[in-house]
Fold:
Amino acid sequence: MALWTLFGLSSGKATTTWPAGDDADGQDGLLGMPRYNPQACDEGCRICAEVCPTHAIEAHDDKLSVDYGRCVICQLCTEACPTGAMTPSNDWAFGVRDREDLVWASGGAPTAAPGGTGKRAFFRSLHVRHVDAGSCNGCESELQALNNPFYNLHRLGIFFTPSPRFADLLLVTGPVTRPMFEPLLAAYQAMPEPRWVMAVGTCAVSGGIPGGNYACATGLEGILPVDLYLPGCPPNPAAIIDALLIFLDRAPQRVSGGRVRD
Amino acid sequence: MIGTRIRSVTAETLATEARALRDTGGRMQFAYAWSPNGDDIEVRYVAALPERKDFETWLLRAGNEVPSLAHIWPLLGWYEREMMDLSGIRFAGHPEPHPLVLREGAPSRGNGQDFLKHPPVDGGHHLPIIDAKDIQRLPFGPIRADVVESAEFTFFYVGEHILHYQPRLFFKHRGMETCFNGRLPSDAVVVAERVSGVGTVGHALAFCEAVERAAGCDVPVRARALRVLLAELERLYNHLHYLGHLCSTTTLKVGEAQGKLLEERAKQLNARLTGSRFLRSMLAPGGLRRDLAPDKWLGDALEALRKEVIAYVDRLEASESYLDRLITTGPLPKRVAFDQGATGPVERASGLDRDLRRDHPYALYDELPVTVTTLEEGDAYARERVRIAEIEAAFDLCQRVLFRLEPGPIRTDGVAPPLSEGLGWSEGPRGSLFYAVHIGGDGTLARVKIKSPSFSNWRAFPLTVHDSNMMDYAINEASFGLTIAGCDR
Structure:
């Protein structure tokens, strides 16, 4: 007979205290969004725009536009860039309230949209209904990890709920495939108000790799009103926690104008 | 096609050839269609012959109608239905000629952005007509409880007893095969890596092998060794997830927590080694995108993880409540596993001794001892034990690779010439994976066919659910370790 309870007690606590305490976030070495440094950019060079598989980087009139809402973190631009204008980074926490904040903008002052109102009652008890609208299962794998002992999402008062009728937040992954369109809308309509929507993963934000082909829409844009965008391919569990806390106004939004402002 | 010998067949000889393949101990792998010059459709059947390390491809220049082989090779039933949906061929005499991948009335070409203006059609899904007293029908999904992938399951049951079970998949069909079209082979690994998130390395590896065979390039030894390391690390975190999930379905709570914690440790190792918890952005046709420096820390970390996994498995083996739920649950007979094309740990637990790593070696597997574990029982417990044996073998393979790793180049140049083609394969955590790659006249990809392991195993799974009971369903499903993204593509 295995003494599981004794084993569990004797192994001690596996849960990180992050983001509140000093514990590690468990994301050592993880690569996030490439950092864009226009000063290092060679005029007229379009190599990064040519290798980008999702048109997150596009060249217009010798200027680049960089949209992190389309980035799938493939790192091809950082490998192709000859001048170091695109460099690998650990900037994986990219949750924003306003889609525009994912687009790189020159200009210095942070313009992060202020937190929403009316969420006070959900501060320490948020119920989330997840809908897979055609993901590659990468986002699901990381969402499932939120309930493993290391992250233990429950400690933050955030719970996944089976029924949309008990849900405050609809968390959607995937580019929205044709057959998932109707069930997705039905789940949203079944939610009581106030209700919010979070787009998790680059597919849900902008369609990702398959977005806009014969089988898929381009994410939630134009389908549901989105209150929080979290690009990533997939976003790691700590990024999802960070984004949920930004949504609840329990953590500041650190990304605006397409970069992390500290 | 390199990696496979091509042979022309005709519609008249097709059935004879298919029977001969079956009677000589060969095995059909998969079939797909493509149009080399826009109009004429070719159907290709890929088969494994006994004692041969390469494969055989039958090429059938099809009109609009081809005789169905589903009565000789039942596993072809789904491939034929997929071709009927996406390529417009008819398979005469098909036992289930209704749509599989698409919904009835859904156009296969259209603008996905107009969903609000033109809502997609939700067609019927061909449930059997069961008209008898006391039989209840339970539709479940496509949005189901818990954080899971989308699919709809229908149960016909009386009390606890399931009479008939029908999964309806392809809610997540993303048209991934067409996402390759028009891209250069060197740029398309990013697509293969996103077909099935938890199968990133397996998909990328099979795709790269296919392109490399088309290009005729030899991958440097160091890259081949590191590919084995990445593939085995993928097997590790997937199988550890599987054990935690299996404990969850048998309500062994501490066992679930420990299994998922071990999976998390494995994913954190992946991130530390490659920058990605799913081992993404590493593979490229010709080798690796960048070198890895798995210094002593990786070997030490893997050894520490191995010790914890062994202690964990010992505790599972001593948990009667857990074992009681697995033993005799969801048996898959060997014959059914073969006929329906079950693959990976599922077929090996039903007594089929096949593993692409040993039988058709790729990467560096021909220079490494690959232990293939098979069991005869075919129940949930056998599937669990096969996976546990594969975890131990994966630790061993990782350490051997780290031990023999020599400095050297990690990438070779090689361009697949226009109008070339190649077949690539790998044995992922869930079973056999194939990529058939066709290069067009301009050097970009013209057609990529993905054969994923879950497409095969989802076909076999329902046959273990009919005539079983509700309490065993979740355990049985978990014991198959299926993904839906890989199946639906």
Observations:
- Chain B touches chain A through 78 residues (CB under 8 Å).
- DSSP finds 16 helices and 14 strands in chain B.
- The two ends of chain B are 24 Å apart (CA to CA).
